[in-house]
Fold this protein.
Amino acid sequence: MTRYIVKGCQVGKVLFRPYEDVLGIGHSMGWSSILIPGSREPNFDSWVANPFETFKQRREKELHSSLDNLPSETIMLDPTKVGTVRPVRKTEKPAKEEVEAEMEVAVEVVKDIDLKKKTKGRNKTSKRAKKINEIVDRSKRPFLEQRIGEQEIRKESDRRSKERKRR
């Protein structure tokens, strides 16, 4: 298979793939790749730890090498905190009454929404009531999910405390 670049194309960039016989050519009509036997490096550089390393790997390696160069006197640990566990911060939770009041406000806002007038047969009172109930349930959902999540966390902490007491 032979490929030729059309006469008059401007070559923008030429790059070899490392350790392979492939040459990539970027030109004004797109890009092409051609094989050039024997162009790759015959032997890997033995001084390079990983010749295929990515940018992130190289950055990580540089960071580790700079940390290794720090003198040990500059690294200090607080002996009172070594081996201890940081306590979990308790966030202030809104009171149950406040959450319920917010839910009621959300429900009242949703109930005041006027539904579109639809064509004959689609505007029945039962269908309108069903649609309003769906909207109300959708507005209550975040509050109920939050309550369920808190209950699950409480059950998990109770289970852990019971396990600790058994030991």
Q: What stands out?
A: The longest strand covers residues 11-16. Strands lie at 11-16, 22-27, 30-35. The chain has a mean pLDDT of 81.
